[in-house]
Amino acid sequence: MRGWIQRRGLKKRAAAGATSRDRRCARHPTLFGILLVLLTSAASTPAALAGQEEAAIIRQEPRWSVEGSLGSRLVGTLYDEFVTRKTLADLPSQTRWKETASLGPEARVVLRHNPVGGAGLYLTLLGGHSGTVARYSGALSPPEDISRSTNYYGVGFGLGMKLSEWDRGRGLLSYNLGTVALTQTIDLSPGHRDAFAQMDARHPGEIEWTSRTSTSWGLDLGASLRVPIGENSALRFSFRDLVIPVNTAQLAAQERDDVKSISSERVAFSLAPFTAHQMSLSAGFEYVFSWAPPRRDVVRVLPERVDVAVVDPAVEAALETAAAGDTARAVASLGQRVALVPHDGLAWRALALLQAPRAEFDPTVRDRTLANLERALNMNPGDTELLRAYGRIRGMVQREGRVPEAVEVRRLELSRLVVQGASDGSLRLSGAARGLGADSQGTYRYAITVEVFDADGGMMRVRPGLDEARVDPEGRLVVEGDGDRLPLALALDLFLVQPEPGIYSLRLRLTDLESGATVETSEGFEVPGS
What we know:
The structure is a single chain. The chain is of the alpha+beta class. Helix content is 17%, strand content 43%. The protein contains 7 helices and 23 strands. The strands form 4 sheets. The protein has an 8-stranded antiparallel barrel. Strands 14, 15, 16, 18 and 21 form a 5-stranded antiparallel β-sheet that branches. A hairpin with a 2-residue loop joins strand 6 (119-138) and strand 7. Helix 3 runs antiparallel to helix 4 (327-340). The radius of gyration is 39 Å and the shape is elongated.
């Protein structure tokens, strides 16, 4: 879509000898801004299903589709700027040329890849026709309006992105962003220049003005609504805006050559830069002619966990002793418990909270109590009672003129698991962990507990692929290990006993053996058939 040429700017010898006005345009070249807000929000967080049964969902997505559409080009301006004419004999003169296109039919053929996915490529062919009205003013001639027509065709390609969807993804609202090459031709047969050219033409009465054709690259912006009407078909309603910089150099050269062929006059033309917007509305029929292979979604089915945050009987006994008034004996009992089981976060919590009241009036135990509170906070992050006690003791230490280091509350994190299943029942799972605490030798020690469930939520028997792993009485796989750096890479091989093809779920719990903190995640996987 590029510029077309001023017809009035062709001032012939009839105007030669007359005094031309040196009119300078105060307008600057048109500046256009394109603001495209991409509202692609695609957040999918698979939630673990507790106590539910779901069948695997079989999906087959369209791969290729073709669309044929008919629509209308909307009213728009092809060119609206000044054209400067220069000759050797005359001073430069300017003519204002404004070409406005009316409504006209437009046809498109669009080939789409991944037409209902989150993102997909497209290739489009388009063509259309509309009437235009050209208005020329300026220089030495009165304003003049000329009715004519324009034809255009082009090819575009780009990316379509989904904004929202419904009907299992078959209906969607999307936008596209791409590039287009457009060729546009303006018919100059109804001309206003004959009167100026007759006197100098080589063959008066046989003047034929050539059409003005220009080709430009531009942006293809738009949005479309897909309404399914069957498994293989849909209706598409689209709005497009082709943002095309006018090819002024090509148009100026055509104008110069035309004048020279008619009158032998050497005239230079200069067209001010201009960007045109060609907007259109269309409705079309889309047909899916190629489908991707069927895909089965993996659905996790996990029973509820009932063994989380169980208080050990030794801790319960110590708390009963403290409630009876013997705090010293309860503290001694809890001290023995954390020495034997250093990852018992509830024992550390009870010990630190029982020691805190004494530390408020006994400075000799404040440092040890503050350290225990820090340890308990690492194992129970966010515990408001621990935080209040820690704040009080830390404030007292600071008032004594000592500034203890801030407590480091680590957050144990586990990445999403990658689980690969084979037809023989062998499984390979991998992931990464952060936030573990190092022991005095700088080693990060951990324990992993793995459970595998079938599609009905029943626990599967597994056997380890490592000598260090074991299976506990409940049928869970337990592995202990260590590492010397973070993030800690986790990799585990195991085997299902009597595997069957189908969908399975895996639940993994990671325990930091230094702090006692625990984190849990789950993932679905498929065991393929032989």
